[in-house]
Design a protein that fits this description.
The chain is mostly beta strands. The protein contains four helices and 41 strands.
Length: 745
Amino acid sequence: MKQFFYTAIISVFCFVVAQPSFAKEILTDKQINLDKQESLVAKKVFINTEKVSSNISQLGTTDLEAALTEIANSKRNFSSSDFIPKLDIKPTVTAQILPEELQYLPLDSTVISDEEIKEILIKYLENIAKKIAKYNYSPKYERGNELSNYIIMQGLIDPKFLTTQNRVAFYIDDIPVDYNNFIILSSTELDRIQVSRIPQSSLVGKNSSGGMVKAIARQASSEPEVMVGASYGRYNNRELQFSLNDALVKDKLALRIAGVYTGQDGFIENIATDEKIGERGRFAARGQLLWTPTSDWKISFNSYNSFINDGNPPFNKLDASEPFEVDLDTEGYNKYNTNTQALKVGYQGKGFQATSITARRFSRQEFLFPSSMGATQTIDDLSLKLWTQELRFQSPETAENFQWLLGAYYESQNYIVDDARVDIPGLPKVRRFGDDSRQTYAVFGQVDYKPIEPLTLSAGLRYESSNASLDSSYDLINSDGSLSPIRPDVKDAKVSDNELIPSFGLKYQFSPNLIGYANIAKGYKPGGLNYGADTEDTLEFEEEKTWSYVVGLQSIWLNGYLLAGVSFFYKDINDYQVLQFDEYGVLGDINNIGLKATGVQFELQAKPTPGLDLIAAIGYVDGKYENYINSETGIDLSDNQVPFLPQLTYTLAAQYRTRGGLYARAELRGYGLTYFDDDNTIKQEPYALVNARVGYEAEKYGIYLYANNLFDTRYLTSGYLFPVPDGTAEFGNPAMYGIQFKARF
């Protein structure tokens, strides 16, 4: 019977891998990489509080201290640019274990532990903003096209739309994931998330000028485990989660599969049809086969699949009196599916460690965005094919005072936009087509050296070369359906870029409780060819180069009851690639301009009494354009604030757990003044959201009541002047509340 059961499970897993459009809705749970040779940057800084705290009531102090000592003395692997000696701190055993290995946290980064992931209910990238004050996320920025979602860190916004690559890289289990906004993450499956806010060029394969987000998921193991979760809330909001883990061959071959389905009815009233629109349906699945033939080898095959079938996005007029009431003769939609397969091979020898990661990713989207006055924007087929290969060799785990890493990276990307149309009443209809291919080659490395006990110096270097080619057309659609070129068709246009990218860092342990760090790093985003360009002269855009400067302090006090950190940054960016709007509010050209951003962040975590946790984070950033004249409109935008960048963000949270299992959490998430266009005419005044959660937790299950945006605050998440003059705004979700259940067997 067991053999039959596993055969069925493997069959389902293989079917999901083989079917890029398996269904419109499925479940995506995340998987967790706990093995010590897992990642270079995302170290297990926080002790897994779920594993420890769930047993606190059954362990004596001596047993728990012994367990902590074993963890503290275990070997660790190469961890970004920090090899500071361990703090002379033995945290007092409480219901939540605070980080003992604070010094191993990479420069200017934040780790969200598995316990915090569950408490914050992180399922999408936007949820990470509830934890990190200098990280912000704008959910469907451009015309309902989620491919252009904005991740914002330290003054840099991150649109991939029309440009060559993301400024912020996203990884799942060390596998680079492009167009990451569709990844549905299961809070029950994640071990930790690490957000690094400095350019990453010498530690991992994919170069990122604005930072990196790494999600580390639960890894397949020989221990049998089944986890289920369900929730139900307002607007028929429903979610189902499932994961299964077990050994196929004891201590040799393990399988883990996970899935999550989310759905919600629409809450937008369409006056034209007298119906509710804006429904959502999303399904994602993940599977992993892990083979460990010997203790030195780990070989895993991973698959990630997401399917989205959403209705009309929550857009309305900028001056709408009722945000969730529209008058649309044509209803919009957003359909998207993506599948990723990756083979990861890890070897840990006595003299070195080696990792190979081969990944393939395919994404396809179609969407229709209707707006006021009958204007519509449509893409019938937008697809991305991505192949990546990364090789890394690094010093063994036993290396201490001198550690090294060498790596190579290859990426092949094919980005096709088939029949992108804009229809504005009173103006000719236009159509764009683009086939953008790019190959990237890179070699990189880093060394970390400890000349004296409290000081660690690091230096990294990357050489990157890319070659891009483009076929594109830009046409008028005549009344008879024929096409008239607006500009000559582009056939096999080519552009190449090469760059050396250095980075330098240091850490110094002033005392057993206090560590300081500084980093200077170059960020680089290659130039390219824009399929949406209006003229031949604007087809090519230049390389973007950033110099990033960061200094900070991290500390732990009062025997582990208080954790505090502060950091300052300055970014000087030349030839920043900005997406321009024309006089009709339509995106077309990419301009290269100057940009400077300065900011500060402060974070504090305290445990005044057993069971009570207090969290505070505040970030301020000032990002301004320099020498920016919109080449489409001729308007001087110099000294304007960077859009989608709140000047102030803050998070205040308190949570309490009793020994009897009762749980409560309340959090306040605040945003300062935010502009949504380069002209700084569309803006959201400062506002704050309140989220709350209460529940009961037993050893293997929990039940909760939750409320997001408890006071039903109205606020904008995006806005732009299309169509002119009404413009369009996207409003944040209204109050959402419901019940959630999770269990583990």
